[in-house]
Write a structure and sequence with these properties.
The chain is rod-shaped and about 45 Å long. It has 33 residues and is mainly α. The protein has 1 helix and no strands.
C-alpha cells in the first residue's frame, strides 16, 4: 500500500516537474526572443 502510494506520488511529481519545466522553457524563450 505505502509502496503504491509512493509510486503514485513520484509519478505525479515527475509529471508536475515536466509540466513546469516546459513552462519555464517557454517563458525563457519568449523573453529571449
Amino acid at each position: 500500500m505505502a509502496k503504491d502510494l509512493y509510486s503514485v506520488l513520484r509519478q505525479s511529481l515527475e509529471a508536475w516537474c515536466v509540466e513546469n519545466n516546459a513552462k519555464l522553457v517557454i517563458n525563457e524563450t519568449s523573453i529571449v526572443f
